[in-house]
Amino acid sequence: MNFQPLDPLLHAELRLAVMSLLISTEEAEFPYIKEQTGATAGNLSVQIDKLSSAGYIKVKKTFKGKRPCTICRMNEN
Fold it and tell me: What confidence tier does 2 reach under pLDDT thresholds 50, 70, 90?
């Protein structure tokens, strides 16, 4: 059995943690990911943008009432 080499983008601990969380759930809101990873909001935001730009995740920005809500899910491709 041959395995594909791991994408260097996923070597970063926080990006790998985000991917691990999203594999086990259909989608996750930003505060949940932040709480589970222990990341700062700024660092998590940057890492989510990198994963989204690379096509690993989809990010949906919406509102819950008047508060912004960011929802992440694995890209199905």
Answer: confident
| SS3 (DSSP) at 8 | helix
If DSSP states are collapsed to H, E and C, what string results for 10-69? HHCHHHHHHHHHHHCCCCEEHHHHHHHHCCCHHHHHHHHHHHHHCCCEEEEEEEECCEEE
Report helix angle 30-37 to 41-53, nearest 10.
110
Tokens representing 70 are 């960011």
Q: β-strands 67-74, 57-64: how paired?
A: antiparallel
Q: Which domains does the chain have, with CATH numbers?
A: 9-74 (1.10.10.10)
What residue type is assigned to position 17 of the chain? A
